[in-house]
Each structure stands twice: as structure tokens, then as C-alpha cells.
Recover the amino acids of this structure.
């Protein structure tokens, strides 16, 4: 490896072939965009994509690239999209659902792997979570062991895989359950039996998501003696703070989703502790961390270093605010930048008492939904509000464990890498400028970003939205 690659991050990725799972997801899209924009000499990126809903993998790649996230690249480096190659597969299938020819192509060409794909549903069945989050990780490792040119495999985990501990360090924690046996059970035991013993099997962990992600960390660890592996654990990933645009987001997860629910009048009450301080990290900071830690791991061969590198990608309460302050800040911003389809005055009550939450949900969400649905039925419009409220209720229940507890994620190892970047690397991969953004600026940018990138609302119609909001 050249000295440039040891010191300059884009030089490390230069002329390399990269394989990404989960490339069409929230993190995956940002990762592709950052690689193409900041490491322009990469050779190619192979994206594992599952055909679905009558769309081929090429159709899905085309749809992904139409996203406004790629506008900067489209204007400045349009030819960079030619470096993206879709590969048909499915992380929930055995051996990633790869065709033999595609598998051999990857083995021959790829030297860097980002395993990002996962099911992030907290209420996923145990079998589906095991197949998608755990078995896929094993299969990625098995394929990586056949790659003669492999220099780095990065697995995206979560700080919340250790949700049974309230102080989480950048180390591998032991698991009480054997990950190999868990895969065998999922492949052989009847689905109904699995459902019955799920709660007993996952033990003190909050849900099947954190359970299977924690086991996947152990699978990575067991393969790390022969593979240059990195585990990166992001906390709650939220909209971009800086690049390629401020406020970019493509999902309703996290505090912005909560604000959008409250801003439209759909989310009137949530079950949460208003005083908790949650750890949120902008997606562009996570992507920078991914590229930096894999570079740091990849500049040393497995013979020089066969240890597993683990990092918590969190803000560690830097400029952290309580849930109550975040919601109030967001609603202040919504007064100036209202949403277009508000059906009720924007406001969300935080109820820490579960009985109070049930009562308020019935009064403020269920009964109004029934009333409005009845009116819609009378005028010949399909009722929809009660169905929406059911989804809101299920989502709040799935998140409740994380809305009434706080954790402290130690990120000293990751911060040390960031802080010791050279001036050349800091320009494209540094984090300090992002931390200068206040919570007021961030929430405002997040709401504008949600209107533009998530809800497809036009900012030129803001005055009409304000008038509607006053009514």
C-alpha cells in the first residue's frame, strides 16, 4: 500500500471495488453519495439490491439515483453514477440470495465491504430478524473469507444492541446465546413455536432487532481473526446536518418523524419521559465515521493487526437536549414553517404514566379519528384516520422502551480518530463544523428538509401553509 493511502483517506479508496449491502436504504444511499463525491477515484461500487413489486434491480437503482440527495453529484460529477453496479440478491435469503456468477464476480473484484443492510423494525418476528440481521452477517463473512484482496469489512451495528446496559463502552460484550445455534433454530423450528418462546429467548433485551444485532456482533468477532473487521455502532441516526444538503432525510424515524406527526395533528400524545436525553447523530456524521474507521482498519493488514475494531458513533451527550426541549424547539420552528396538510393544531402531550397515556390516546386520537372517519364515509371518501392512529399507537409501543430510558455511549476511541485527522482529511471528513449547529438551527433545517425531501412539499407555498395553519 502506498504512503498516500496510509495518510489520505480518498487515496485509500482509490481504484478499489466496494460491495455494499443495504445500499438503497437511508444510510446506504448516503454512503454511496459520499463515496462517489469525496473519493472520486474509486473503481466501482457493487450494490446488493432485491427485485420487488415488479421492479428490476436496474429500475430500483434508477429510482434511488433520482433522489434529491444525488443532485450535487448529478450537477458536478454525472459520470460517477456509471461506477454503480446493481447485484441481484436478498439479505434475508441464505447466501445473500446471490447467483453463483455474481458471487464469483464479487469474490474476484471486491476489496472493501460495508454490511449496512438490516431490518430495523422493532416488532419484527424472531425468524425474519435472525435471517436478515444475523444470518446475512455470517454469510457476508463467509464470502469475504474467499476474497484474496479484502482489506476491510465494516459492519453497521447499533449502540442499542447493549440496551440492557446504561453505560456502553467501545468493546465487545459477551452474549448468553450462541449465534450459530440461533441460526439453526430459525431454519428448523416452526414459526408458531418461535413466536411462543421469543420473549424467553431474547431475555432482557428490548426486542428482536437489538437481540439479533448483538448476536451479529459476535459473529463478526468470531470471523475477525482471519478478516480485517470493524464494528460501528451508530446511535439514533437523524437528518443530515451539513452535507450534501442540510436536513436531508428519507424516513419517519426519530425526532423528526415525531414532529411531523405532531405537526400535522395526528400525534396528539406519546408515551415517554420528557426529561430523558437521547443520543441523536446526523446521518452525514455517521457516513464520515464509516469511511474513516474502515480506512484506519484497512491500512494495517490482518497479519499486522488481527484485533476487532469497535466504535460507538454517538454524540455522547454533547449539546444534548431533553426530549421535552427538543419537541418544544421543533414546534416553535413549525409555527414559522408549518406543514401543508395540518388537520389539528400542532401539539404533542408527553405522558410518562401509561394509564394516562391510554386515556389521552382514547380521547385525543381514537375518538376524533372515529368521528372524522364517519364524516368521510358519509361524503363518500374512504375512512383512513383510525387506521393511521392504529399505526401511530403500534409505533409508539414499539419505541416505548427507548423513550423512557437514557443511556451513555462512550465514544472516546472514535473521537480520537476524528481529532487526529490531518488537515487534508479533516476538510472532507472532519466533524467539528457540524457541532457548531444549534438545536434551533438543526430542527429548523430538519423540518425544511422533511418538507422538501420526505413530503415533497414546495417551500414557495409556505404562505398558504401558514394561512391554513392559522385556520
Amino acid at each position: 500500500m502506498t504512503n498516500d493511502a496510509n495518510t489520505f483517506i480518498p487515496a485509500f479508496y482509490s481504484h478499489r471495488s466496494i460491495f455494499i449491502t443495504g445500499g438503497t436504504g437511508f444510510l446506504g444511499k448516503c454512503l454511496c453519495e459520499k463515496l462517489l463525491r469525496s473519493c472520486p477515484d474509486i473503481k466501482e461500487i457493487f450494490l446488493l439490491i432485491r427485485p420487488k413489486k415488479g421492479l428490476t434491480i436496474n429500475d430500483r437503482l434508477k429510482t434511488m439515483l433520482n433522489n434529491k440527495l444525488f443532485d450535487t453529484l448529478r450537477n458536478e460529477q454525472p459520470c460517477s453514477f456509471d461506477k454503480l453496479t446493481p447485484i441481484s440478491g436478498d439479505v434475508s435469503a441464505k447466501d445473500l440470495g446471490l447467483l453463483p456468477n455474481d458471487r464469483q464476480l464479487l469474490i474476484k473484484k471486491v476489496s472493501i465491504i460495508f454490511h449496512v443492510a438490516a431490518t430495523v423494525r422493532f416488532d419484527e418476528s424472531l425468524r425474519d430478524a435472525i435471517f436478515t440481521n444475523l444470518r446475512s452477517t455470517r454469510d457476508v463473512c463467509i464470502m469475504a473469507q474467499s476474497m484474496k484482496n479484502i482489506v476491510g469489512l465494516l459492519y453497521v451495528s447499533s449502540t442499542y444492541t447493549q440496551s440492557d446496559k446504561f453505560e456502553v463502552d467501545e468493546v465487545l460484550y459477551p452474549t448468553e446465546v450462541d449465534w450459530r445455534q440461533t441460526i439453526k433454530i430459525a431454519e428448523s423450528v416452526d414459526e408458531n413455536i418461535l413466536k411462543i418462546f421469543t420473549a424467553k429467548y431474547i431475555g432482557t433485551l428490548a426486542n428482536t432487532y437489538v437481540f439479533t444485532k448483538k448476536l451479529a456482533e459476535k459473529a463478526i468477532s468470531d470471523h475477525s481473526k482471519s478478516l480485517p473487521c470493524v464494528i460501528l455502532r451508530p446511535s439514533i441516526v437523524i437528518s443530515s446536518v451539513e452535507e450534501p444538503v442540510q436536513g436531508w432525510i428519507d424516513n419517519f424515524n426519530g425526532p423528526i418523524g415525531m414532529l411531523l406527526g405532531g405537526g400535522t395533528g395526528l400525534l396528539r400524545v406519546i408515551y415517554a419521559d420528557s426529561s430523558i436525553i437521547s443520543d441523536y447523530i446526523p446521518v452525514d456524521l455517521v457516513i464520515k465515521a464509516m469511511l474513516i474507521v474502515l480506512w484506519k482498519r484497512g491500512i494495517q493488514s490482518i497479519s499486522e493487526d488481527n484485533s476487532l475494531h469497535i466504535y460507538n458513533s454517538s454524540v455522547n451527550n454533547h449539546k444534548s437536549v431533553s426530549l421535552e426541549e427538543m419537541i418544544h424547539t421543533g414546534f416553535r420552528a413549525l409555527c414559522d414553517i408549518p406543514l401543508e396538510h395540518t388537520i389539528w393544531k400542532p401539539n404533542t402531550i408527553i405522558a410518562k404514566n401509561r394509564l394516562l397515556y391510554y386515556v389521552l390516546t382514547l380521547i385525543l386520537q381514537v375518538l376524533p379519528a372515529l368521528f372524522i372517519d364517519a364524516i368521510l364515509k358519509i361524503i363518500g371518501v374512504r375512512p383512513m384516520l383510525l387506521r393511521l392512529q392504529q399505526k401511530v399507537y403500534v409505533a409508539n409501543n414499539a419505541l416505548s422502551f427507548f423513550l423512557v430510558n437514557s443511556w451513555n455511549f462512550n465514544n472516546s476511541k472514535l473521537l480520537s480518530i476524528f481529532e487526529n485527522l490531518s488537515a487534508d482529511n479533516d476538510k472532507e471528513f472532519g466533524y467539528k463544523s457540524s457541532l457548531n449547529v444549534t438545536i434551533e438551527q438543526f430542527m429548523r433545517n430538519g423540518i425544511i428538509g422533511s418538507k422538501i425531501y420526505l413530503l415533497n412539499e414546495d417551500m414557495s407555498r409556505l404562505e398558504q401553509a401558514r394561512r391554513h395553519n392559522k385556520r
